[in-house]
Fold:
Amino acid sequence: MWIPTEHEKYGVVIASFRGTVPYGLSLEIGDTVQILEKCDGWYRGFALKNPNIKGIFPSSYVHLKNACVKNKGQFEMVIPTEDSVITEMTSTLRDWGTMWKQLYVRNEGDLFHRLWHIMNEILDLRRQVLVGHLTHDRMKDVKRHITARLDWGNEQLGLDLVPRKEYAMVDPEDISITELYRLMEHRHRKKDTPVQASSHHLFVQMKSLMCSNLGEELEVIFSLFDSKENRPISERFFLRLNRNGLPKAPDKPERQCSLFVDLGSSELRRDIYITVHIIRIGRMGAGEKKNACSVQYRRPFGCAVLSIADLLTGETKDDLILKVYMCNTESEWYQIHENIIKKLNARYNLTGSNAGLAVSLQLLHGDIEQIRREYSSVFSHGVSITRKLGFSNIIMPGEMRNDLYITIERGEFEKGGKSVARNVEVTMFIVESSGQTLKDFISFGSGEPPASEYHSFVLYHNNSPRWSELLKLPIPVDKFRGAHIRFEFRHCSTKEKGEKKLFGFSFVPLMQEDGRTLPDGTHELIVHKCEENTNLQDTARYLKLPFSKGILLGNNNQAMKATKESFWITSFLCSTKLTQNGDMLDLLKWRTHPDKITGCLSKLKEIDGSEIVKFLQDTLDTLFGILDENSQKYGSKVFDSLVHIINLLQDSKFHHFKPVMDTYIESHFAGALAYRDLIKVLKWYVDRITEAERQEHIQEVLKAQEYIFKYIVQSRRLFSLATGGQNEEEFRRCIQELLMSVRFFLSQESKGSGALSQSQAVFLSSFPAVYSELLKLFDVREVANLVQDTLGSLPTIVHVDDALQAVKLQCIGKTVESQLYTNPDSRYILLPVVLHHLHMHLQEQKDLIMCARILSNVFCLIKKNSSEKSVLEEIDVIVASLLDILLRTILEITSRPQPSGSTMRLQFQDVTGEFVACLLSLLRQMTDRHYQQLLDSFNTKEELRDFLLQIFTVFRILIRPEMFPKDWTVMRLVANNVIITTVLYLSDALRKNFLNENFDYKIWDSYFYLAVIFINQLCLQLEMFTPSKKKKVLEKYGDMRVTMGCEIFSMWQNLGEHKLHFIPALIGPFLEVTLIPQPDLRNVMIPIFHDMMDWEQRRSGNFKQVEAKLIDKLDSLMSEGKGDETYRELFNSILLKKIERETWRESGVSLIATVTRLMERLLDYRDCMKMGEVDGKKIGCTVSLLNFYKTELNKEEMYIRYIHKLYDLHLKAQNFTEAAYTLLLYDELLEWSDRPLREFLTYPMQTEWQRKEHLHLAIIQNFDRGKCWENGIILCRKIAEQYESYYDYRNLSKMRMMEASLYDKIMDQQRLEPEFFRVGFYGKKFPFFLRNKEFVCRGHDYERLEAFQQRMLNEFPHAIAMQHANQPDETIFQAEAQYLQIYAVTPIPDSQEVLQREGVPDNIKSFYKVNHIWKFRYDRPFHKGTKDKENEFKSLWVERTSLYLVQSLPGISRWFEVEKREVVEMSPLENATEVLENKNQQLKTLISQCQTRQMQNINPLTMCLNGVIDAAVNGGVSRYQEAFFVKEYILSHPEDGEKIARLRELMLEQAQILEFGLAVHEKFVPQDMRPLHKKLVDQFFVMKSSLGIQEFSACIQASPVHFPNGSPRVCRNSAPASMSPDGTRVIPRRSPLSYPAVNRYSSSSLSSQASAEVSNITGQSESSDEVFNMQPSPSTSSLSSTHSASPNVTSSAPSSARASPLLSDKHKHSRENSCLSPRERPCSAIYPTPVEPSQRLLFNHIGDGALPRSDPNLSAPEKAVNPTPSSWSLDSGKEAKNMSDGGKLISPPVPPRPTQTASPARHTTSVSPSPAGRSPLKGSMQSFTPSPVEYHSPGLISNSPVLSGSYSSGISSLSRCSTSETSGFENQVNEQSVAPGSGSGHSGSEELVRKESKTPPPYSVYERTLRRPVPLPHSLSIPITAEPPALPPKPLAARSGHLENGTRRTDPGPRPRPLPRKVSQL
Structure:
């Protein structure tokens, strides 16, 4: 049975609980839980960190804590009843714990470790508090430490500042806002500026004296010395060292270390030094023998000095070694320290023993009590205290001292009959009046206990010794009278006996006969001569003698004899009991000399203050005694003396004596009648103020009025007690009259002199102190009225005297701070006066700091929830008087420029903050009634309007981030709470007064603007807070954004037709609000957009403005990080629902769809931009957005901005070609005109021409860096044309040189051909611009399939790689995941013209193979029907997929989307034909290269011949014969007759080529390979016989004509004989890269036997030593990589390059050979060296290049005669290309060169011998049957990025072969439409000419017409000419027209929205 708990409400989890039981609640150790119910050892409740999840948990896992419950029941709140500091500690440590781990993750090791230590410290302190055994003081101390550490940690982690009062957190609701502000500011300042300590202390510890030859004991004396004033400023610290130089008493630490206390800040300067004097105790001479003398003397040893400034860095100087110096002559010893300080090197040097003094020094700051606390260990071990000389800066009452300081200065002695000077030693005793020596009252220094006698050190042979030794005599007062000091002088003999002989003495009494002590100063004492045996114990004998030369008696002959010898001492008394002042004594003994009273009172002012305060109580008793004696006679004098003493206590030195006077007044003062005289004299002075010329004395009186009133009041109380309250009325009247006089004097205006105003100022500054005294005798209201009258009498003219005005304000301030003001009754009386003065000052903007302080104090007294009547009335008064002026003041000070000085700025911020706090306090106190009264008080709408505008503006200022420091979240939340409350009140006034006919745009705009920035504040974005902080804020204030959002909606609905005023202005602000991730706020605000659309539709019939503004703002806001996917969905759903019933629904849906699509792209863009490095995703996303802005939104400026963003990304990624294409988009928008353009992005203000020129140059530079020189050349021409038209020949010259340099680069520099990859992005998790789309990507240099796959997987780390190339199904499209499908594809160039032209070098052709590519393809082999195990080729088909892109590559991106895909199937026969064509082409190329010596090594040709011949002999071609030449196949496929004939032709052609190849091989083969050559010739004859060929002798003879390589003459434009960069590489055999192959196929369905046959057909040898040993590879997939692909990514088109599990080791080498890259293939495979022109002409008669290949109406012989574009066909004409669906011909431009303008071949029907009879043509040569395929892939051998795998199948998958659009099977497809009889050669050639009359676009930005994303640039277009370009045209001739349509491919797709031709000043 579950029972609700009564007392068990709150607990802490002490063991983790996994919650594995039903309804179990998972808990972590340390969680706090709230308990709701209990049952049999189980509790039910929830963890406070997640209150929504409730469950059960064992009661034993929880430690219960005391707590109190608020709101019992369903919504009860449990608050632990523990110390608030503990609660704060716990929650803070929890928050820190999470952040602490993050520090580790972010690698902030330093803070991580520091925080860890602090957290441990806090936990230790927390335990101490929880145990509860601490004393009250210790508890306070622990709390102080805790809060200091919490604040430090919060500051380091960027958390909020916590306001505290006495270490406990403060609830802002419980105190006024001004008080909260002060607490925050106090904590903030404490954090910023540590308070400078006024008191400092020096800790000194003596370690040792390091010296080589000590052997004697030492005395070390430390003291502080002021080198400026040349005097010691401290007592001495004295310690003894043993013979080893170590302290003599190691067990007594107080003897080794001392604290020099009470150093003022003024004494921490460079000229204060620590001086150390060292005295040795031993023999007279340091080097004397040990037994010379047993008597020991004190002798100088050395001195060390250190400036105190060296310690100011604050570091402890632990082991400081001070150098010890000795003076050169002993007589200088007394000033050795001064000489060292002054660096008078001649007078001292290092001690002979080179001693060093080891000490530890540290400077401590703070008062002595604080030091005792903080360094308790020092004090507990013991430390001696060394005081300053005399009293400290501040004399504390109760301090008892009676110290006499005596300095033994010097002596002057006679030789005494000796030949040398004496060694004088002084001995000192203190002798009391009885003649006894006082014991233990001579102190050498603080480390040593006092002694009874003192012996000075001895200076060797010196009759004028100077000692300067300071001694302290702490003699008790009672021993002082009658005591004297005696000095005895002895000569110390250095003889063996070492005896000391007495030869004289001096003495000095401590007190004079009149009771005064020995005066301070130097005294010259008489040296009385005596003998050794003189008895000085009888003091009476010598005390009658004179002691000092200053007071010699003229007739005393005895004394006169002693005057030649003198002895000097300096005395200084520091006593709180004895005085040296006679006047003071006379005053205190006034009764003995009544006649001297007047004189004594007059002299009181001349007496030193320290003497007066020493006898303060006695002095005051004396004064009031004299007053009582004769008030008539002495009243005025006593009053003046009293004033003097009172003002003396104002001095900071004696400030601490005020409590002594207070105590005296309370306890000792007995003058019951004194009040009458005091009032009388005071009134007399006040009355005289206005007439008196000299005001100084009167001002002194006014300054002392506080204490005068204290005496008056106390005297009156004593009188009342004594008489029972007699004369009360009289006393009141006296006080009234006194204050009347005061009021009169205050109301006077100063007439020029200013003295009066000074007196007024003095009175006002001390007047508030009188209030508390008056309250002792009068009622609160009476005193308040008296004060009000007095303050009210001040003159109100503000400009009278600024100084006086400030004092007035200070007086008001003190009044507000006084006890009188705290009483509500008196406050109500005083408030109007206070407010009046404040208003006056605020109006003049003077003394703002003081005004702010006063106002703060006023509001501090008004607590938040005071609903007492008096408080409400006060608020009424304040609102009426100050609200308006307060608003104006805040506006004024925030609009001022901030002062520059840091202290000034602090002051400025403080005053602003205080005024803001005051305003907030006032507004928080205002109730409905106050607001209503305020709004009613405005007489006109204008006044109300001004007020509302003003308050809204102030609120906007308060919301500014800089208003409060960033960690003042508490203050900001309080301010926001007040603002929103006030706005809710004022919005009502707005509705009532400023709608309909009174509508005021400005005020409504101000309102909405305020509301928007309120919601957008950083401190209200709860999503950024920690869970605990968010919970606290929601509990206290709720989500204020939602409240304000609802208010905005409500106000918007009230506007009605006035809404139109705010469309489109408010769209941006409201959009910003809706982007805040708060669902409720979004739900409230998004419908406003529907409303805006509706009203805009009503006004103008559309909502173009709404659309434009939405789109503009979305971009900027989302790029700032606002908005999310949820918002996009919410925006879409809410608005679509809203517009369902609207008449304009259609256009609304369109707008919403557009905005939603834009959001998708912007969100993707933002997510991509968060990545660190530039990747394809970033670029693709930017392209998507850029195209969207242009085609869908037509936003030109945004389009151009994104062009430049894309450009920057490309540059960063070093995609220079793409960067050039991108910049070209902007260039296209500009014209060569002089229209001025404004400054935009990084462009300055310039003309359109200048900007276009700048762009051109930048684009050329990027094309150059991207090695796309052909495009650069065209732009060079463009800009050169402009320079030429302007006759700017200098730049024209530069441009022509640049153009020339680009031509050179084409010919001289190597260019790598990229590979191309098709990538499919499937699944809903991809960004919108990629989702379920396929792209073709241009790879980086040297990037192969594995590298590309890896890169894509790195860019999309969550993607799954698909392992097949089939099109995915719908489930993959809709999956909540990411799937990547990647394989390589082959580029199909648009134009074959350059590629098939004779003599064009490979360097040039390489560009056209991989640039301006729209179409790509890949092949997939498969078996159709029954598979013949004997011969696979019978059923082996190829599925060929062609991909068409939206834009050609390269372009503005490295990848473009596939727009269209076409799939065709190639029959086995067509496939076989294509395989043979490719092999033949390869052979021709190699033979050609060998002939023209382009090959340095014949091995590639050898291997190729071996591969083909050996395979053919072993069954290669025979497999085709078996498959397609058998009767069954011919009968079952009658339609394939021509194709079979074509295959037969190719076989025969291959035989001819092989025969010629063997002839060439024989010519060049090296000797060691002759046997192989012979073997090949033998095998070739076997092969011929298998084909049924008998003899080719004629052919062999004629071969030199075909191959003019015996004496080769190469066309001048052809490639040099050396290898081109992309040509064949000569690589040793057995390398997998030795030689590229053409056909790489595999099929998972191929058997190894069939594969072996394919291997034979394709010309591979079985030997694994041969490079082309391509073994069968039963690949498990139909896709294969160019080279070994990673297993998790699908590889390219059919190939077995991936490691097949079935592949034997034996065959791995051949597998590797199949993986050759396109780079390794010879670039010129399709283009052998061209023949000579004469041979060209001859061969032109052979056939028509445009003849269709598969027309059923043509005979086989006609079809057979199809010239190949190579030296084999000797046809130099261009090859035409049929495009599907009537597409226009496009081919890239060819750099101009001389050529024949038209070839006769075009118009001549070709005649060719039939295949049966192969006789030489006209006896001159044998015509080899050319290939039927005209168009060969530009990448046939060398270019395709995808290798088709091993040679295991005979299918052209992604091959180099037959890549033209009309080749192979496609050729059939394209020509199905040719009508019977229409295939004549004549019409074919005509079409060829017609098609070739179109000039191709230069590069891929020229899209097919109407292809969607980008309109085509015309900058690089070449005008159409009827013929191919011949000589380079003149600058203006070749560029006459743009003819854009002629350069675009047609596409029936929709036209894009047109882009304006001009750029709007961009």
Summary: The chain has a mean pLDDT of 76. The CA atoms of residues 1283 and 1292 lie 5 Å apart.
